[in-house]
Amino acid sequence: MTTTTPLRVVIADDQALVRTGFRMILASQGIEVVGEADTGTEAVHAVRRTRPDVVLMDIRMPEMDGLEATRRILAAEGEQVPRVIILTTFDLDQYVYAALGAGASGFLLKDVSPEHLVSAVRMVQAGDALLAPAITRRLVARFARREDAPLPGGRDQAARRSTLGTLTARESEVLRLVARGLSNAELAAHLHLSEATVKTHVARILAKLGLRDRVQAVVLAYETGLVAPGGGDAESSTVA
Hints:
GO terms for molecular function: DNA binding. Residues 8-125 form the Response regulatory domain. It comes from Streptacidiphilus jiangxiensis. Keywords: DNA-binding, Phosphoprotein, Transcription, Transcription regulation. The chain is an alpha/beta fold. The chain folds into 2 domains: 8-135, 3-Layer(aba) Sandwich (Rossmann fold), CATH 3.40.50; 142-239, Rossmann fold (3-Layer(aba) Sandwich). It is built from 11 helices and 7 strands. The protein has a 7-stranded mixed sheet, sandwiched between helices. Helix 8 crosses helix 11. The radius of gyration is 17 Å and the shape is globular. Mean pLDDT is 80; it is low at 232-240.
């Protein structure tokens, strides 16, 4: 009989009560909490020690904040790099910008429901990317227009635009739809494809563009003008 490996999570938050609550919620759904940290420094060490699939990372912590800890975790070379979900009590644009710039795959407010928390962890581990319900693609578009916004892959504007030329017509179409917030199921229905085929297209897009996940793909699509901000898209709680 095949045994499924449980999803592994590290929780980094300077409030013990928050860590305990999240651990209980995740454990009740078969998700294993393999480490906890109450500072950014401890979070980096915990990730290196336990190699989790996902990190729940508070922004405001002693010694090193969660954004810097996220940058260090995602900059690791030759290691399995986890997905990072940023957690905060503050619904402020600058934290969204900073989280996206640091390479986070998700952003949630701490008052998230237990069901949404579990769903978010599973979505991000599977390669999807999300923003909290109160945070919309409007913020992603605004992030992409900021002159000081970190750029996906560390490349300049001309280099990023040139990489788009490596995409097939179908892949360019998929990237536009991903940037506009369509889920895999919605992409499949819109393009009359199977979800497996959609996932293959997305994986190839990320590989060709040298991007880690869909958050970076969305930002790049806006930065390069492939998708224009304010294009009349409906708001969504998820990004692809």
